[in-house]
Amino acid sequence: MTLDPSYLDYPKRRHGMDHDYYPWSDLRARAPIAWPGGKKVAVWIVADLEWFPITPADKPFRAPGHMQTSYPDYRHYTAREYGTRVGFYRMLDAFAKVGATVSVAANGAIAERYPSILRDIVAAGHEVIAHSTDMNGTIASGLDEDTERALIAGSLDALEKATGGRPRGWLSIARSQSFNTPHLLAEAGLDYMCDWVNDELPYRFHTAAGDIVNLPLSHELSDRQIIVNQQHGVDSYVEQMLDAYDLLAGEAETYGGRMLPLNVTPYILGLPYRIDAFERLLAELAARPGVWFARGDQIVDAAGI
């Protein structure tokens, strides 16, 4: 069996990705990044603050963590609501104990239903980034471009109304995009997105509507992946995050500043038998002299790309 000739003649086939968004590059060969204060590793915490409608939408796909049992699925609905009622406030206390500022990826529905949470986030010095309208607001190819444009605008408008500031960053549900998403995000005036996970440092993304920075938010380092999907204990999660930090700090000695993204979920880590381990993780990171707890907007600005 031979390949179709059109495969070999594909006009964008080249070294690296087959697109014009950015050139391929070796992480070790780039100009080194210097974080403020000579810090080695920017620890970027992104807490997902989500509202799941009790009736899930299965098109273009069902969001991870959505309702599972027959309608009305109060078991999962109230477990998710636990994150906004209880778990997230435990996280806010944990961040305050070590003086960490973080990014909070919030659905627009959070602004409409629980605006006081967003006011507390901003008052504590944290950043709010847009995370669609609600957990039915998924994006994938095939979604009408005007519908996607309206979804992005609806999320940004709701969050701006509640916080007084328009978000600079965007995280899609399940990090999923259509072919239109990058240019629609740039068109909407966003400075960065978090959906492409093929790197450990920010890089510039070229679109027809202008440039946007991609700030990679690793799925493999998320609490959902490690604790829920892989079913590791919370102590193992902590150990893995510290191992990741140690390796990155070692690389920083030679190659310049590195980034450790921690994607956390209030209804997962905010539970009473897990929050103490999360607090221990933050304390151990804070004790390392090379750590810079940074929001996404601060990392993008400091990277200077």
Offer a quick outline of the entry.
The protein has 305 residues and is of the alpha/beta class.
Q: What does this 3D model show about the protein?
A:
With 305 residues, the protein is an alpha/beta fold. The protein contains 11 helices and 9 strands. It has helices spanning 5-8, 74-98, 108-113, 115-123, 145-163, 181-187, 223-229, 234-255, 266-269, 275-286, 296-303, and strands at 41-49, 103-106, 127-130, 169-170, 192-193, 203-207, 210-214, 258-264, 291-293. The strands form 2 sheets. Strands 1, 2, 3, 8 and 9 form a 5-stranded parallel sheet that branches. A 4-stranded mixed sheet has the order 4-5-7-6. The longest helix has 25 residues, at 74-98. The termini are far apart. The relative contact order is 0.18. The mean pLDDT is 95.
